[in-house]
Every structure is written in C-alpha cells, then in structure tokens.
Amino acid sequence: MSAETVVEGQLHSMEGTKKPCRSCKWEIEDPTNPAQGQCTVNRTTMGSIWKRWVRDSANMTCSHHEEGVLSFREHV
Ligand code: SF4
Known about the structure:
This protein is mainly beta and 76 residues long. The protein has a single domain, classed as High-Potential Iron-Sulfur Protein, Chain A (Irregular). The chain is 8% helix and 24% strand. The chain has one helix and five strands. The longest helix has 6 residues, at 3-8. The structure holds iron/sulfur cluster. Iron/sulfur cluster binds at residues 11, 21, 24, 26-27, 39, 41, 54, 60-62, 64-65.
C-alpha cells in the first residue's frame, strides 16, 4: 500500500516511536500542557511558519524529525 509512504512525511500517530515530536527540534512545547505542542517545520512559499498542532508529542512523529533544540538564531 502506498498510503504508508504518503503519511511518513506528515505528522502522524505512532505509538511508542523512537523519534517523537517531543525530542524534535521543530516542536514547541505547549506551556500549559507539555504532552502537547506545535510543530514549526512547515514553511509557506513566502517563508512564514505554518504551525501544526501536536496532539500527543510522545506518540507522534514524521520523517522531518531532527534531534536537538530549536535555535532561534537560525530563524533571524
Ligand atoms: S518535524 Fe515531525 S517529528 Fe518534528 S515536531 Fe514536526 S511533526 Fe513532529
């Protein structure tokens, strides 16, 4: 089935993933609920951030996962 490959590049649920949004540098933790957050990996063609809601940061992932802490310097 090709459905699986389509979903890899997109935010999707994966129970017990080794690369959760939680440890991804693109995720910004929700200040009131650290189990959730927002993914900032997406950019529009104009370069502005198109945030996506991460409903369960421990069990969601995508193929853009990148380990590390988001450095705001990179976005100046
Ligand atoms: S880039 Fe992927 S793994 Fe990282 S926060 Fe966004 S959806 Fe999660």
